[in-house]
Amino acid sequence: MKNHIVLFEPLMPSNAGNIARTCAGTDTVLDLIKPLGFSVDSRRLKRAGLDYWNSVDIHYHDNLPEFMKSMKPGSRLFLVSKFATHIYTDHDYSKPIKGDYYFMFGKETTGLPEPFMRKNPEKAIRIPQDDSHIRCLNLSNSCAIVIYEAVRQQNFLNLERVHKYPHDKLK
User: Residue 104: inside a domain, yes or no?
Assistant: First the structure.
């Protein structure tokens, strides 16, 4: 079982780079659904991801239907949207499943396609926010919030629980 962050048509290279860095730190697969609003050779994308790109398992998909066909059988898909009725903490991500957990996030400007959301309301989750002050949370922050809840429920599987200092200054 693996966790995936899925970005539907991301526009901003700095967000994608930050999300890739979060994926590297959480042993999470990154799925990118085209078209992308940037070149994968972008300096801003590479700078935001620092030198972690070799540690990220990235899958590219030409469109949403191709992505849907690529999902492993037995997987669970969650659509992260401020229009969902269920809160992301309402779900149990610790249950062993035959496939993987996929958390799909929409384009920074328009979110996920409305027809797709309407067909799959039971898969939609949201992060509570005060809509009177902001339209939406930052995409990379939203990804971090949701993926860390999933790995927390999974008892931080495959993640370092204690930081190992490179030198012994604390003795």
Answer: yes
Examine residue 132 and state whether it is found in any structural domain, yes or no. Answer: yes
| Residues 54, 145: Cα–Cα separation, whole Å | 23
**Residue from 94, 88, 77 nearest 151 by CA:** 94
106 is in an annotated binding site: yes
Question: Which pTM was predicted?
Answer: 0.90
Is there a binding annotation on residue 17? Answer: no
Is residue 46 in some structural domain? Answer: yes
Q: Between the CA of residue 103 and those of 23, 87, 130, 147, 162, what are the distances in Å?
A: 12, 13, 22, 8, 27
Is 158 within a domain? no
pLDDT at 168: 53
Query: Which tens digit of pLDDT belongs to each residue from 81-93?
Result: 999 999 999 999 9
Q: What is the pLDDT of residue 40?
A: 78
Using CA atoms, how far apart are residues 126 and 90, in angstroms rounded to an integer? Answer: 10
127: annotated binding-site residue? yes
Q: How confident is the model at residue 132 (pLDDT cuts 50, 70, 90)?
A: confident
Q: Are 16 and 107 in contact (CB under 8 A)?
A: no
What domain range includes position 144? 3-153
Give the C-alpha separation, 104 to 111, whole Å.
10
d(CA 38, CA 12): 7
Domain count, the chain: 1
